[in-house]
Amino acid sequence: MAGSALLNALVLRAPSPSLSSSSKRRSAGAFAFPNPPRFPSLRSARRVVLARAAAAPGAGGDPEPEDEWGPEPEGGSAATGTAVAEAPEAREVTELKAQLKDALYGTERGLRASSESRAKVLELITQLETRNPTPAPTEALTLLNGKWILAYTSFSQLFPLLGFGNLPELVKVVEISQTIDSENFTVQNCIKFSGPLATTSVATNAKFEIRSPKRVQIKFDEGIVGTPQLTDSIVLPEKFELFGQNIDLSPLKGIFTSIENAASSVAKTISDQPPLKIPIRTNNAESWLLTTYLDEELRISRGDGSSIFVLFKEGSTLLN
Protein backbone atom coordinates (compact mmCIF):
# COMPACT_ATOMS: atom_id res chain seq x y z
CA MET A 1 0.00 0.00 0.00
CA ALA A 2 1.08 3.61 -0.49
CA GLY A 3 0.89 4.19 3.28
CA SER A 4 3.35 1.37 3.93
CA ALA A 5 5.73 2.74 1.29
CA LEU A 6 5.64 6.12 2.94
CA LEU A 7 6.36 4.64 6.34
CA ASN A 8 9.19 2.45 5.05
CA ALA A 9 10.78 5.41 3.33
CA LEU A 10 10.84 7.35 6.54
CA VAL A 11 13.63 5.22 8.02
CA LEU A 12 16.34 7.86 8.17
CA ARG A 13 19.38 5.74 8.58
CA ALA A 14 19.33 7.37 11.87
CA PRO A 15 29.80 18.63 27.75
CA SER A 16 32.32 17.36 29.65
CA PRO A 17 32.05 19.05 33.01
CA SER A 18 34.36 21.99 32.88
CA LEU A 19 37.02 21.58 35.45
CA SER A 20 36.60 24.47 37.82
CA SER A 21 39.07 25.15 40.55
CA SER A 22 38.16 26.98 43.70
CA SER A 23 41.79 27.47 44.57
CA LYS A 24 43.11 30.96 43.95
CA ARG A 25 46.76 32.04 43.73
CA ARG A 26 47.83 34.91 45.94
CA SER A 27 49.43 38.01 44.47
CA ALA A 28 53.22 37.58 44.07
CA GLY A 29 54.10 40.98 45.53
CA ALA A 30 53.97 44.69 44.78
CA PHE A 31 56.63 45.51 42.21
CA ALA A 32 56.02 48.66 40.19
CA PHE A 33 57.54 49.31 36.78
CA PRO A 34 57.27 52.63 34.90
CA ASN A 35 56.57 50.68 31.69
CA PRO A 36 55.35 47.23 32.67
CA PRO A 37 56.71 44.59 30.28
CA ARG A 38 54.55 41.89 28.75
CA PHE A 39 55.30 38.31 29.73
CA PRO A 40 54.26 35.12 27.99
CA SER A 41 53.23 33.60 31.35
CA LEU A 42 53.01 34.36 35.07
CA ARG A 43 56.02 32.15 35.77
CA SER A 44 58.15 34.16 33.31
CA ALA A 45 57.10 37.40 34.99
CA ARG A 46 58.13 36.05 38.40
CA ARG A 47 61.58 35.10 37.09
CA VAL A 48 62.20 38.59 35.70
CA VAL A 49 61.13 40.16 38.99
CA LEU A 50 63.45 37.92 41.02
CA ALA A 51 66.34 38.60 38.64
CA ARG A 52 65.93 42.38 39.02
CA ALA A 53 65.68 42.06 42.77
CA ALA A 54 68.91 40.03 42.85
CA ALA A 55 70.75 42.63 40.74
CA ALA A 56 69.66 45.59 42.89
CA PRO A 57 72.33 47.41 45.06
CA GLY A 58 72.88 45.54 48.32
CA ALA A 59 71.47 42.30 47.07
CA GLY A 60 73.32 39.20 48.21
CA GLY A 61 73.33 37.70 44.78
CA ASP A 62 71.85 34.44 45.99
CA PRO A 63 70.80 32.09 43.27
CA GLU A 64 67.21 32.23 42.19
CA PRO A 65 65.04 29.92 44.31
CA GLU A 66 63.54 26.92 42.60
CA ASP A 67 60.28 27.69 40.82
CA GLU A 68 57.59 25.78 42.69
CA TRP A 69 55.52 25.67 39.50
CA GLY A 70 58.09 23.41 37.84
CA PRO A 71 59.86 23.92 34.51
CA GLU A 72 57.99 25.81 31.85
CA PRO A 73 57.02 23.75 28.79
CA GLU A 74 59.02 24.37 25.65
CA GLY A 75 57.46 26.88 23.32
CA GLY A 76 56.06 29.19 26.01
CA SER A 77 52.72 29.17 27.76
CA ALA A 78 50.56 26.10 27.03
CA ALA A 79 47.39 28.17 27.30
CA THR A 80 48.68 30.73 24.83
CA GLY A 81 49.72 28.02 22.37
CA THR A 82 46.32 26.31 22.57
CA ALA A 83 44.44 29.53 21.87
CA VAL A 84 46.61 30.24 18.84
CA ALA A 85 46.15 26.70 17.51
CA GLU A 86 42.39 26.51 17.99
CA ALA A 87 41.41 29.78 16.34
CA PRO A 88 42.40 28.84 12.75
CA GLU A 89 40.72 25.42 13.13
CA ALA A 90 37.44 27.02 14.25
CA ARG A 91 37.54 29.49 11.37
CA GLU A 92 38.20 26.69 8.91
CA VAL A 93 35.24 24.65 10.17
CA THR A 94 32.96 27.69 9.96
CA GLU A 95 34.05 28.28 6.36
CA LEU A 96 33.51 24.62 5.43
CA LYS A 97 29.98 24.70 6.86
CA ALA A 98 29.20 27.85 4.88
CA GLN A 99 30.49 26.18 1.70
CA LEU A 100 28.37 23.10 2.42
CA LYS A 101 25.26 25.23 2.86
CA ASP A 102 25.93 26.93 -0.48
CA ALA A 103 26.57 23.58 -2.20
CA LEU A 104 23.19 22.26 -1.01
CA TYR A 105 21.26 25.22 -2.41
CA GLY A 106 18.82 24.15 -5.12
CA THR A 107 19.39 20.40 -4.69
CA GLU A 108 15.99 19.88 -2.98
CA ARG A 109 17.52 17.78 -0.20
CA GLY A 110 19.55 15.83 -2.74
CA LEU A 111 16.75 14.94 -5.16
CA ARG A 112 17.92 17.29 -7.92
CA ALA A 113 21.65 17.22 -7.16
CA SER A 114 23.81 16.74 -10.23
CA SER A 115 26.79 14.40 -10.21
CA GLU A 116 29.08 17.43 -9.88
CA SER A 117 27.04 18.75 -6.95
CA ARG A 118 27.11 15.37 -5.21
CA ALA A 119 30.88 15.16 -5.63
CA LYS A 120 31.32 18.65 -4.17
CA VAL A 121 29.00 17.90 -1.23
CA LEU A 122 30.81 14.63 -0.53
CA GLU A 123 34.18 16.39 -0.57
CA LEU A 124 33.00 19.00 1.95
CA ILE A 125 31.42 16.32 4.15
CA THR A 126 34.69 14.37 4.20
CA GLN A 127 36.66 17.48 5.18
CA LEU A 128 34.23 18.23 8.00
CA GLU A 129 34.34 14.64 9.25
CA THR A 130 38.13 14.86 9.65
CA ARG A 131 37.58 17.93 11.86
CA ASN A 132 34.75 16.47 13.94
CA PRO A 133 34.73 18.33 17.31
CA THR A 134 32.72 15.51 18.95
CA PRO A 135 34.60 12.23 18.39
CA ALA A 136 32.16 10.29 20.61
CA PRO A 137 28.66 11.62 19.76
CA THR A 138 26.80 8.97 21.79
CA GLU A 139 28.63 10.25 24.85
CA ALA A 140 27.39 13.80 24.12
CA LEU A 141 23.63 13.16 24.15
CA THR A 142 22.87 16.78 25.04
CA LEU A 143 24.20 17.74 21.59
CA LEU A 144 22.23 14.99 19.85
CA ASN A 145 19.04 15.93 21.66
CA GLY A 146 16.42 18.00 19.84
CA LYS A 147 14.92 18.45 16.39
CA TRP A 148 17.12 18.14 13.31
CA ILE A 149 15.99 19.26 9.84
CA LEU A 150 17.11 17.20 6.85
CA ALA A 151 19.06 19.36 4.38
CA TYR A 152 20.53 16.67 2.15
CA THR A 153 20.52 12.90 1.70
CA SER A 154 21.79 10.27 -0.71
CA PHE A 155 19.20 7.78 0.62
CA SER A 156 17.38 6.82 -2.56
CA GLN A 157 14.27 5.46 -0.78
CA LEU A 158 13.35 9.02 0.15
CA PHE A 159 13.48 10.29 -3.44
CA PRO A 160 9.94 9.13 -4.39
CA LEU A 161 8.57 11.24 -1.55
CA LEU A 162 10.73 14.20 -2.48
CA GLY A 163 9.46 13.74 -6.05
CA PHE A 164 6.12 15.21 -5.04
CA GLY A 165 7.82 18.49 -5.89
CA ASN A 166 7.27 17.55 -9.54
CA LEU A 167 3.69 18.74 -9.04
CA PRO A 168 4.42 22.42 -8.32
CA GLU A 169 1.97 24.29 -6.13
CA LEU A 170 -0.17 21.17 -5.63
CA VAL A 171 1.71 18.91 -3.23
CA LYS A 172 4.88 19.96 -1.44
CA VAL A 173 7.21 18.32 1.04
CA VAL A 174 7.43 21.10 3.58
CA GLU A 175 9.91 19.52 5.96
CA ILE A 176 11.68 16.26 6.77
CA SER A 177 12.93 16.09 10.34
CA GLN A 178 14.32 13.77 12.98
CA THR A 179 13.64 14.48 16.64
CA ILE A 180 15.86 12.78 19.22
CA ASP A 181 14.84 12.47 22.87
CA SER A 182 18.10 11.56 24.59
CA GLU A 183 16.45 11.07 27.99
CA ASN A 184 13.99 8.41 26.81
CA PHE A 185 16.20 7.10 23.97
CA THR A 186 13.53 7.65 21.32
CA VAL A 187 13.63 8.92 17.74
CA GLN A 188 10.82 10.28 15.59
CA ASN A 189 11.22 10.72 11.83
CA CYS A 190 8.59 12.99 10.30
CA ILE A 191 7.63 14.23 6.85
CA LYS A 192 5.25 17.18 6.55
CA PHE A 193 3.18 17.68 3.38
CA SER A 194 1.14 20.64 2.26
CA GLY A 195 -1.48 20.92 -0.48
CA PRO A 196 -4.15 23.35 -1.62
CA LEU A 197 -6.75 21.80 0.72
CA ALA A 198 -4.83 20.65 3.79
CA THR A 199 -1.53 19.94 5.48
CA THR A 200 -0.63 16.62 7.07
CA SER A 201 2.32 14.55 8.23
CA VAL A 202 3.55 10.98 8.28
CA ALA A 203 5.95 9.86 11.00
CA THR A 204 7.61 6.83 12.55
CA ASN A 205 8.51 6.36 16.21
CA ALA A 206 11.51 4.29 17.24
CA LYS A 207 13.77 3.38 20.14
CA PHE A 208 17.55 3.53 19.89
CA GLU A 209 20.36 1.74 21.66
CA ILE A 210 23.97 2.89 21.91
CA ARG A 211 26.32 0.36 20.33
CA SER A 212 29.57 2.35 20.11
CA PRO A 213 30.87 5.91 20.66
CA LYS A 214 29.49 6.80 17.20
CA ARG A 215 26.87 4.18 16.39
CA VAL A 216 23.28 3.62 17.50
CA GLN A 217 20.86 0.83 16.62
CA ILE A 218 17.31 1.95 15.82
CA LYS A 219 14.18 -0.21 16.11
CA PHE A 220 10.91 1.23 14.74
CA ASP A 221 7.75 0.38 16.64
CA GLU A 222 4.92 2.45 15.12
CA GLY A 223 3.90 4.68 12.27
CA ILE A 224 1.74 7.77 12.67
CA VAL A 225 -0.46 9.45 10.08
CA GLY A 226 -1.21 12.94 11.31
CA THR A 227 -4.67 14.44 11.32
CA PRO A 228 -5.10 16.57 8.16
CA GLN A 229 -5.36 20.24 8.96
CA LEU A 230 -7.59 21.96 6.42
CA THR A 231 -6.41 25.32 5.19
CA ASP A 232 -8.51 28.41 5.82
CA SER A 233 -8.57 29.20 2.12
CA ILE A 234 -7.78 27.28 -1.04
CA VAL A 235 -4.96 28.78 -3.07
CA LEU A 236 -4.47 27.24 -6.50
CA PRO A 237 -2.07 28.22 -9.27
CA GLU A 238 -3.45 29.62 -12.49
CA LYS A 239 -1.85 26.73 -14.36
CA PHE A 240 0.64 23.94 -13.89
CA GLU A 241 2.50 21.46 -16.05
CA LEU A 242 1.72 17.74 -15.91
CA PHE A 243 3.36 15.18 -18.21
CA GLY A 244 4.48 17.96 -20.51
CA GLN A 245 1.01 19.51 -20.81
CA ASN A 246 0.04 22.94 -19.46
CA ILE A 247 -3.21 22.65 -17.53
CA ASP A 248 -5.26 25.81 -16.97
CA LEU A 249 -7.15 25.82 -13.67
CA SER A 250 -8.84 29.21 -13.97
CA PRO A 251 -12.19 27.77 -15.19
CA LEU A 252 -12.37 25.70 -11.98
CA LYS A 253 -12.21 28.63 -9.57
CA GLY A 254 -15.97 28.62 -8.99
CA ILE A 255 -15.97 24.92 -8.15
CA PHE A 256 -13.11 25.32 -5.71
CA THR A 257 -14.91 28.21 -4.02
CA SER A 258 -17.80 25.86 -3.25
CA ILE A 259 -15.35 23.24 -1.99
CA GLU A 260 -13.72 25.84 0.22
CA ASN A 261 -17.04 26.74 1.84
CA ALA A 262 -17.81 23.07 2.50
CA ALA A 263 -14.31 22.40 3.80
CA SER A 264 -14.47 25.18 6.34
CA SER A 265 -17.61 23.66 7.86
CA VAL A 266 -15.90 20.31 8.57
CA ALA A 267 -12.43 21.61 9.42
CA LYS A 268 -13.08 21.70 13.16
CA THR A 269 -14.49 18.19 13.19
CA ILE A 270 -11.47 16.72 11.42
CA SER A 271 -8.91 18.64 13.43
CA ASP A 272 -10.34 17.24 16.67
CA GLN A 273 -9.61 13.65 15.63
CA PRO A 274 -6.47 11.97 17.03
CA PRO A 275 -3.69 10.88 14.63
CA LEU A 276 -3.82 7.37 13.23
CA LYS A 277 -1.19 5.09 14.80
CA ILE A 278 -0.11 1.91 13.05
CA PRO A 279 2.03 -0.65 14.97
CA ILE A 280 5.14 -1.85 13.16
CA ARG A 281 5.62 -5.52 13.99
CA THR A 282 7.97 -6.69 11.25
CA ASN A 283 11.34 -7.99 12.36
CA ASN A 284 13.06 -6.00 9.61
CA ALA A 285 12.08 -2.61 11.04
CA GLU A 286 15.61 -1.91 12.29
CA SER A 287 18.51 0.15 11.06
CA TRP A 288 21.75 1.62 12.32
CA LEU A 289 23.08 5.15 12.25
CA LEU A 290 26.69 6.31 12.48
CA THR A 291 27.22 9.96 13.44
CA THR A 292 30.44 11.19 11.86
CA TYR A 293 30.18 14.91 12.63
CA LEU A 294 28.33 16.71 15.43
CA ASP A 295 28.27 20.20 16.85
CA GLU A 296 25.59 22.62 18.07
CA GLU A 297 24.10 23.23 14.61
CA LEU A 298 25.26 20.52 12.19
CA ARG A 299 25.02 16.72 12.21
CA ILE A 300 26.34 14.39 9.53
CA SER A 301 25.31 10.73 9.71
CA ARG A 302 25.89 7.63 7.63
CA GLY A 303 23.53 4.66 7.43
CA ASP A 304 22.73 1.48 5.52
CA GLY A 305 23.81 1.26 1.91
CA SER A 306 26.42 4.04 2.29
CA SER A 307 23.61 6.58 2.64
CA ILE A 308 24.52 10.04 3.92
CA PHE A 309 22.34 12.48 5.86
CA VAL A 310 23.12 16.15 6.49
CA LEU A 311 20.89 17.72 9.14
CA PHE A 312 20.73 21.24 10.57
CA LYS A 313 19.55 21.85 14.13
CA GLU A 314 16.20 23.62 14.41
CA GLY A 315 16.87 27.33 14.96
CA SER A 316 20.34 27.21 13.41
CA THR A 317 21.48 30.05 11.19
CA LEU A 318 22.36 27.39 8.59
CA LEU A 319 18.60 27.11 7.89
CA ASN A 320 18.32 30.78 6.97
Q: Which features does this protein show?
A:
320 residues, alpha+beta, eight-stranded antiparallel barrel, two-stranded antiparallel sheet, 7 helices, 12 strands, globular, disordered N terminus
Describe this structure in words.
The protein is α+β, with helices and mostly antiparallel strands. 28% of the residues lie in helices and 27% in strands. It has seven helices and twelve strands. It has helices spanning 2-9, 42-55, 78-104, 115-129, 141-144, 159-162, 253-271; strands spanning 146-153, 172-181, 186-194, 198-210, 215-225, 229-230, 239-242, 245-248, 276-279, 286-294, 298-302, 308-313. The strands form two sheets. The protein has an eight-stranded antiparallel barrel with strand order 1-2-3-4-5-10-11-12. The chain has a two-stranded antiparallel sheet with strand order 7-8. Strand 10 (286-294) and strand 11 form a beta hairpin. Helix 3 (78-104) packs antiparallel against helix 4 (115-129). It is globular and about 60 Å long. It starts with a helix and ends in a 7-residue tail after the last strand. Mean pLDDT is 75; it is low at 1-43 and 63-85.
